[in-house]
Amino acid sequence: xxSLVAELGYLxxxxxxxxxxxxxxxAGIKRQNCxxxxxxxxxxxxxHLAPQPKIDVAxxxxxxxxxxxxxxxxxxxxxxxYYSEASxxxxxxxxxxxxxxxxxxVRQREAGRPLLSFGRAGDGSKPGAVGRVHVDYSEETGQKRxxxxxxxxxxxxxxxxxxxxxxxxxxxxxxxxxxxxxxxxRSLGAGDLVAGEIRYQSRNGELYLVRHSxxxxxxxxxxxxxxxxxxxxxxxxxxxxxxxxxxxxxxxxPEATEATPLRESIEVRCLAxxx
Length: 275
Known about the structure:
Elements: E1 3-14, E2 19-21, E3 34-45, E4 60-64, H1 75-94, E5 98-108, E6 134-135, H2 139-150, H3 153-158, E7 161-170, E8 180-183, E9 193-199, E10 204-210, E11 218-220, E12 228-236, E13 248-250, E14 264-274
Parallel strand pairs: 2-9, 3-11
Antiparallel strand pairs: 1-3, 4-12, 5-14, 6-10, 7-12, 7-14, 8-11, 8-13, 9-10
């Protein structure tokens, strides 16, 4: 199977619970109290898998998903057109009865392609590619997100199963320089996940960082174009689900050159509710 070898940013060590500031903190405070290590890992091109991965087994799947959106940097157009497209896509891929899109983020690889980190240089106002292996939600914040989206405690308590799902795509040409890699959820061990705190200027959040394991199986889709969408699971409340968490990270493609266009992408986060 076609594959390449690239570096992925795993958690190496932390002084207590890992904490990362997504902006420049006050004088005397370190931007992070943890260390990361770049580990060279084989990353296989999932286009050549047969059968293709499914979200409830491997944690991710690719869809041919044309969009009517012209300008993904226009928030009004994204919310009025793309949210409904993403909702329909998540319903089709997961079988959820209700899907609520609650967030989106547009990212661009930084000029000069500096070392990949959390994609928030300087004051954090210009999101770049995230090179740290992570899952956007932990066990705790996955449950909190349900309440935040629904804003109805009684309704939230009545839901037996829900999931948080991302839809990720290029918003320009084919992605050639900094693809998104996803880890097969079946290769993940519970001990690989470490809850870490992310501090923004107006709020704090918690996600999972990931310790390296040789068991991890990594995939990407080569040259993803604008009419394709990668759908992957961030959290699933179903304890015995095969894929509850899907680690992911950007990586610098070893064949990219200075002339390779910078990656521009959008990610949409969805709450999927099952009957």
